[in-house]
UniProtKB/TrEMBL annotation:
SUPFAM superfamilies: Periplasmic binding protein-like II. Residues 1-20 form the signal peptide. This is Aldouronate transport system substrate-binding protein. PANTHER family: ARABINOSE-BINDING PROTEIN-RELATED, POLYGALACTURONAN_RHAMNOGALACTURONAN-BINDING PROTEIN YTCQ. Keywords: Cell membrane, Lipoprotein, Membrane, Palmitate, Signal. Residues 29-47 have a biased composition (Low complexity). It holds the Pfam family SBP_bac_1. It comes from the Bacteria. Residues 29-53 are annotated as: Disordered.
Length: 548
């Protein structure tokens, strides 16, 4: 039976990331510092630098969404190169292009960089691995990566299950985090507008949420004499929290499977719970309470919406409220994360967000062209060491952080104040300096709730919301990776099935499909093959439960 209940420290955001490899050319290839990679114990210091030329690593990865400065020029990345005696040769592509570019390069199989970031569904990952274009790393981790090994076996034991392919090999390493509150996704509401329109109670149910949205619009909360206040965000944001309110463990639109309290796997988007959610969202949309452009909303457009002062609510990481909403909108705007909404059955749940195989699944693999895989594993094992973790999360001591009672404490606000000509916000400085280089390098984060939610009165309110939500926090659905035979079936019929499901999801919300046709919708999904996919998923789930 599926476990449920309180989760105090979340195993979260193991978005699959592993970088490494060495040059494909004829330049000198030295291994990283032995002290950064000793296989006998956890290591901290790269002080025993070799005197030979640095290990050159060619990496195909995605550039940061927010920063203008290339990763290649960021001080933290430069410091990592210095400490470990490596030289990165970056090949960056825009984030939206990384999946197609990486797949194209791997399919060609020639002139490969040493490392490629794969944003690839697990149903394709194993087949690609079997082609030999990137190598298994199981033995390399066992022999040369004590910090990586400890991370996936002791700190985050579920990670090893999710990394392991059906041939019992590891092919990539995941980014991992033990973050209090950081991956708590919640609805986020314009609290100052609630007060302005006379609502003193933060919504606790889906019905109260509807009434709040309606009041903010009808009473012109933004004061522009238009009824233009609504829930907004990119299309996937609409499905971050509402599924949970209707009894589903879905994290987002990619959560196609779920398991009930009796351990029975079922199809998320053809369930009666999904129907009830669609009906609720259709009500909001038909009354103008959801952004009419949500289905096509891109990141830049969503930011413009916020700055235009018309967004009454959205859904996102609860810890991001201050920097991503209040600071961005300005003018005294006060968004707050709210507790998971109770749905029609009177219960609520919050889902730990963003795990391997789900949204933003990054996989860094060592290609067949890498000449020094051992050196690569040792380098990235340093990143998983205590010192490496501090470098990529906090930066350089007395520049980006200071030690207080032996623990790193960020001083980025002071850093920004001293570098006003370069950075105007802490987030901009973190991006520009190379902290938390998601999409470029693996790293491990260990964040307290105070760090996650930042300082200030509104942050404290968000912390309280997070703490009250722990009682209903649940892990999302997990299953084992598919076998090649299973994958073949998924490849043959999955595309058509999930395209139809996605099309109908939007049609139900937009009112372009009648709920009187729900049974026909389910029947067509079955005819397209969702029942076959469900049988495969049941086997994957059973394998996952049996794995050690």
């Amino acid at each position: 039976m599926r476990k449920k209940g309180t989760i105090a420290l979340l195993l979260t955001l193991m978005v699959s990331v592993f970088l490494a490899a060495c040059s494909n050319n004829a330049s000198n290839h030295a291994s990283p510092s032995p002290s950064a990679s000793s296989a006998s114990s956890e290591t901290n210091s790269p002080s025993d630098q070799p005197s030979s030329e640095p290990l050159t690593i060619r990496i195909l990865a995605q550039e940061n969404y927010n920063a203008q400065l290339s990763y290649a020029d960021r001080p933290i990345i430069k410091e990592l190169e210095k400490r470990t005696n490596v030289k990165f040769e970056w090949e960056f592509v825009p984030p939206n292009d990384i999946a197609s570019v990486a797949q194209t390069r791997l399919s060609a199989g020639v002139n490969l960089p040493d490392v490629i970031e794969l944003n690839m569904d697990s149903t394709k990952f194993f087949e690609t691995a079997q082609s030999g274009v990137f190598i298994p790393i199981t033995k390399l981790v066992e022999q040369h990566a004590p910090n990586i090994k400890r991370t996936i076996e002791e700190e985050y034991p579920i990670a090893k299950k999710l990394w392991t392919m059906p041939d019992n090999e590891l092919y990539s390493v995941t980014y991992a985090a033990q973050n209090e509150g950081v991956m708590f996704v919640s609805d986020i509401i314009r609290y100052d507008w609630l007060q302005k329109v006379g609502i003193t109670k933060i919504p606790e149910t889906t019905d109260e949420f509807y009434e709040a949205l309606k009041a903010m619009r009808d009473k012109d909360a933004n004061g522009n004499s238009k009824q233009d206040e609504f829930f907004s965000g990119q299309g996937w944001q609409l499905f971050l929290t509402f599924p949970a309110a209707f009894g589903l463990n879905a994290q987002h639109t990619g959560s196609n499977w779920d398991v009930d309290d009796n351990g029975k796997v079922f199809s998320t988007w053809t369930s009666d719970k999904a129907k009830a959610m669609y009906q609720y969202l259709n009500k909001l949309y038909s009354e103008g309470l959801i952004d009419p452009e949500y289905t096509t909303m891109a990141y830049d457009a969503s930011q413009a919406r916020l700055k235009s002062n018309i967004v009454s609510a959205t859904s996102f990481y609860a810890q991001s409220v201050k920097k991503n909403y209040n600071d961005l909108v300005g003018g005294g705007a006060e968004y707050r994360a709210i507790q998971p909404l109770k749905g029609p059955d009177g219960t609520s749940r919050a889902i730990v967000f963003n795990v391997p195989g789900g949204y933003n699944g990054y996989n860094w693999v060592i290609t067949k062209s890498a000449k020094n895989p051992e050196g690569i594993i040792k380098l990235f094992d340093y990143i998983f060491s205590p010192e490496g973790r501090i470098l990529l999360q906090y930066g350089i001591e007395n520049v980006h952080y200071k030690l207080v009672d032996g623990k790193p404490v960020s001083i980025m606000e002071e850093f920004v104040a001293a570098n006003k000509d370069k950075y105007d916000t802490v987030q901009a400085a973190m991006d520009g300096e190379g902290l938390n280089p998601i999409g470029a390098l693996p790293y491990v984060r260990n964040v307290t709730k105070e760090e996650a939610f930042q300082a200030g009165e509104t942050a404290q309110a968000d912390i309280e919301t997070y703490e009250k939500s722990l009682a209903v926090m649940r892990m999302p659905y997990f299953s084992a990776n598919p076998t090649l035979e299973e994958q073949q079936v998924v490849t043959e019929i999955g595309g058509e099935v999930w395209t139809y499901i996605a099309e109908m999801r939007d049609k139900f919300v937009l009112g372009q499909a009648s709920f009187d046709e729900w049974d026909k919708y389910v029947a067509k999904a079955n005819d397209l093959g969702i029942t076959k996919l469900l049988e495969i998923e049941k086997k994957k789930y059973e394998r996952f439960l049996s794995m050690k």
